[in-house]
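[retry 2/3] Putative beta-lactamase-inhibitor-like PepSY-like domain-containing protein: previous attempt timed out, resubmitting with same input.
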Amino acid sequence: MNYKSTILALFFLIGGMASSKAQDIPKKDVPDAVKTVFIKAYPKATDIDWKMKGSNYEAKFDLGKVDHKATYNALGKTISVEKDIPNSQLPAAIAKSIRIKYPKGRIDDVDWINTGGKITYKIDIEGTPDVNVWYSADGKFIKEVAD
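[retry 2/3] Putative beta-lactamase-inhibitor-like PepSY-like domain-containing protein: success.
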């Protein structure tokens, strides 16, 4: 491969990686249907940032001092809602499972997630190594991803 082809390939690779992540967008580019549903659900939201995630619109915002995230399709249908919760609000069955599975780990952050009425928890665990784990509301382990 010659020099120009290498540079061109690198350019497309970097561009593809950048486009695969969520893209920040200005509020004016969010469809009115999405903004209307969001404002009705969260009239007291502050520090609102909008992103495109694939074809969906994601709002990251604060309610009081709590971080939230809500994802909508272009028609304003809610895909999921997520919020930080204190470690103390983690269901006991999940906390027990984590203590057993990760005895040297420390729970750093807990997110409560509602996707179409299905509740899950994402827990960031610091330890060796750091991991993110997901559990169902009834305490069943779903998956683990290295952090």
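[retry 2/3] Putative beta-lactamase-inhibitor-like PepSY-like domain-containing protein: The chain has one domain: 23-146.
[retry 2/3] clearing retry counter.
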